[in-house]
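Record type: ASSEMBLY
Status: queued
Input:
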Amino acid sequence: MIDTPLNEFALIKRYFTRPRKKAFLGVGDDCALLHVPPTQTLAITSDMLVQGRHFFPHTDAKRLGHKALAVNLSDLAAMGAQPTAFTIALALPTAHAAWLADFSDGLFALADQYDCELIGGDTTRAPLITLSITALGYVPAHAALRRDGAQNGDDIWVSGELGDARLALAHIRNEWPHQAPLTRNELAQIYQRLEQPYPRIALGLALANLTTLARQAHHADPSSPPSQITHACAAIDISDGLIGDLTHILERSACGATVNIDALPHSIALAKQPQDIQRRCTLTGGDDYELCFTASSTVRHTIEKLSTSLALPLSRIGKIDAQPGLRLVDQKEQPVIFSQSSFDHFSDTP
Amino acid sequence: MIDTPLNEFALIKRYFTRPRKKAFLGVGDDCALLHVPPTQTLAITSDMLVQGRHFFPHTDAKRLGHKALAVNLSDLAAMGAQPTAFTIALALPTAHAAWLADFSDGLFALADQYDCELIGGDTTRAPLITLSITALGYVPAHAALRRDGAQNGDDIWVSGELGDARLALAHIRNEWPHQAPLTRNELAQIYQRLEQPYPRIALGLALANLTTLARQAHHADPSSPPSQITHACAAIDISDGLIGDLTHILERSACGATVNIDALPHSIALAKQPQDIQRRCTLTGGDDYELCFTASSTVRHTIEKLSTSLALPLSRIGKIDAQPGLRLVDQKEQPVIFSQSSFDHFSDTP
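Status: finished
Output:
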């Protein structure tokens, strides 16, 4: 197959036009049109990926298509929203058929998994590949997993394992000379975590459902004590690192937290590493796209069951408390000092 | 004032956080949440601007903020939608306070004019300034100005004047040696057309209203002949040039058109230019962001009155006919040959 440059309209048509499903009007007009069910609020999120900043130039196009959508769906998951549709603005140095075929394969494989429809976008030329996706989802207004929902005494949980994406990044960059060697399988696994993260949609929906049930219970018996009915969850997806992202919940909820760093879930590959690398990866490694969420301790058993039914590890890593700030302790409850701050796209030291 | 680089979260907070209005939840959570009124469909559009491709590096930041939003609102106008909210993904080489202050001034001045609320976004670093906005608007489903709505016999109209943006671009590039000299005022005017286009929102809403009225009339008296009740308009905004954009309407509506090139509205600055420059600018000059729309000839007088009430020139430039393709004629109805095609972001000759 000759990898021919295409013109803008031909490439949109070939790789990004698909039969319309839920949209009232899809790709190919000035706007897409969407009917939002009256029982739902619309959840909207936009994320941008830039070559050299968020991914390496040689990144597999299929994985890149997956990741570009995954990071946006992850924001919907963190809100408890059901993905519905998305737009993509795509800037490329050249429009090569083979690259576009792979990219759209990865993009649509993930989109189809959640019946999330491409409804519009824009293509243009730029020296670096730049992708900006806006994802739309539905969530009942009072079920949304807002960052301001954490309450004193709540448990803090994280899904999956933390830090593998950061370890993979360090490996690619040859960043830490004392990094312990890994097997081929371990390397494949940490690379996949970096390049092909899976948004925790099912978990987000289950937590939103838990929030709805709690509100319904309170509505049925408003005299029940708040400690027994307040199951509303706060959630965030871990894109910039646990410390930075959890801090957003604490700030918005006007509370503090104590986190047991020995309870942070991590892979065997990361467990092989020296302690400083482990801590750096689990505490401040970005790009994990796991969910960090809070929930009343009264639903602890429900969440443990959820972990089983979703076949997804859910680890209880600490507690929300009234004292502002984030305190790290080890399993003997001794304070741990860790100075590394979260990833900031406009500071030079990630 | 020292133009200090800021970190990502500080700059979002300083320049892009404003009090929430219509959104149920705005900037600062994983997603924004929006209640869509049940009588409305949601119109969604995404456009990306890349430095060096869509604007020059020295472009005034305030005008750039305006234009980045304007090109998206222009798509809402072409759909007949009322702007409601937008997200912005912003990639910058550095985050300088002075630039961001100017940029957000221009952005919000236009947003406030239409009560269009910033509800989320993303900021990152990239070697070139790259802006991707997704704009959301509301339109009753059956009032939308779709590209597939043109019918044989309809008049073709354009708003405002065509070609000044392209003339300004040529002037900046020193592109055409035989370009006639312009006064300082004329230059200021064509530069403003390029850098600060105004979306034709009021026109789009009026045309959508005309479409609604026509459908209501048909509903009240279904026996009325179609020629008298079919006032539904097709519309597109002229971003890639009249020929290319009108062709999208023709293709989607499965019809053809004859356009009188002597009827194309243009400025005094453009009228001073040689005929080849005039034609190239009016027929294929992108970046005009005027609306090209079709309407039944039975509402010709209504549209002329609309021009007066909106204080916006509306010029009747041709007719939709059954024969596929676009035919250009002069005012003596003689065929005109013009070979220049529309602007394509992946071809090298705009």
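Annotation: The radius of gyration of chain B is 21 Å.
Annotation: Chain B touches chain A through 73 residues (CB under 8 Å).
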